[in-house]
Amino acid sequence: MTPSPRRPAPSRSNDPSDERCSTTIIHVAKIRRVRKRLESDHTLSDAAEMLKVLGDPTRLKIVRALMLESPLCVCDLAALAGVSQSAVSHQLRLLRSSRLVRAARDGKLVYYRIDDEHVADIVDPLLKHSGER
User: Fold this and answer.
1) Where residue 57 sits, what CATH number does that domain have?
2) What are phi and psi of 126, to 5 degrees?
3) Which of 36, 50, 52, 131 has the CA that lies 20 to 30 A from 125?
4) CB neighbours (10 Å) of residue 59?
């Protein structure tokens, strides 16, 4: 019987960003240090949810508009975002539930503003980074 031809071994990348480790070694001391400083799963989940909310271009445009000029009503935001008032109201509900914006009633009008300065601390670096690409 003739031996079957050998397949070449998969090539290993010399790229340091390659996600595979050639040897499994767990650095226990490093893991302990990181675990002490790592946020709780609940906090990380909340932060991921906030990033999902900001991941929509219309919502991001609304947030950015409120960062530049505040307060604004639904009519103003709809004109700026180029969508219907109904669509803006829906997006604002999501932004409010994520505590990114807050509402204040003035008679029949409801005005929106950024909930706190941390929102700008999140959005400004994102926009700066995107503008550099």
Assistant:
1) 1.10.10.10
2) -60, -50
3) 36
4) 22
Strands (E), the chain: 72-73, 101-106, 109-114
Q: What does the radius of gyration of the chain's CA atoms come to, in whole angstroms?
A: 24
Residue 1 lies in a domain: no
Decide: 59 and 123 in contact? Cβ < 8 Å. no
For residue 20, tell me if it sits in a domain.
Answer: no
Average pLDDT across each block of 10 residues of the chain; the chain has 133 residues. List them in order. Answer: 54 62 88 96 93 95 96 97 96 95 94 93 91 80
Q: Give helix then strand counts, H and E, for the chain.
A: 6, 3
Is residue 61 domain-resident?
yes
Range of the domain at 89: 42-123
Task: Note whether residue 132 is domain-resident.
Answer: no
What pLDDT does 9 receive?
53
Burial 78-98 (b: 16+ CB within 10 A, else e): bebbebeeeebeebbeebeeb
